[in-house]
Amino acid sequence: MRTRRPGRWMILLVTALTATPVAACGAKPEAAARPQATAGPSATATHSPAEERAAREAALAAYSGYLAASRAASRRSDPRHPELAKFLADPLLTRVRLAIREAKEHGAVRTGTFVSDPTVTSVSLDSVPATVEIQDCLDTTGYRLVDAKTKRVVPGSGGGRHLATATATRYHGRWLINYGAGHEDQPC
C-alpha cells in the first residue's frame, strides 16, 4: 500500500470530516478558490433572530450529518454511501467520494472516532444562495486510516487537534455542506 501525507487522506474530518469525514481534511487551496455568494435584490433585507437561529441550527445539523455520513462511508470504503448526498453538495461531495475511493483502491479504511465541537461564525441569509460559515475544532487522535486486511495503521495518517472550516449552503430549502477545509497547521 502506498502512503501519503496525512492531510491527503482526511477530507474534512472531517471525510473531506471530508470531505471525508470521510472523511478527510481536504486540500487547503479550496478555501481560496471558494466562490463568493452574491447579494440578491433583497440585500438590505433583515431577518428575524428566529430565522437566523433556524439557519444556524439547520446548518449545524447538516454539518453533524456530514461528519456521521463521512465516518460511515469511510468505515465501509463506500464512496457511493447514500447518506453522503443527504448532507453534502459539490464540490465537497465529489472530493469526499474521491478520497474514499482512493483509500479503497489502496486497501485502506478509516476506523475509530473523532470529536467535533462546531460553532457558527457567520450567517448570510441575504446572499444568493444563503450560507452559514462553520468553524470546528476536530480532535482526530482516535481516528485512523488502517490497512483493511491487516488493520495496521497507515504510517503518517495519525491525527491530532486542528481547526476545520465548512460552509453550509441552502439549496431549495435544504442546508448542505458544500465546502470544507482542514487546517492541520492550526491547532485548537
UniProtKB/TrEMBL annotation:
The source's domain of life comes to Bacteria
Q: Which UniProt keywords apply?
A: Signal
Q: Which residues form the signal peptide?
A: 1-24
Question: Quick check: keyword Signal in the entry?
Answer: yes
Region entry Disordered, spans: 32-54
The protein here is known as Lipoprotein
- Write down the species: Micromonospora haikouensis
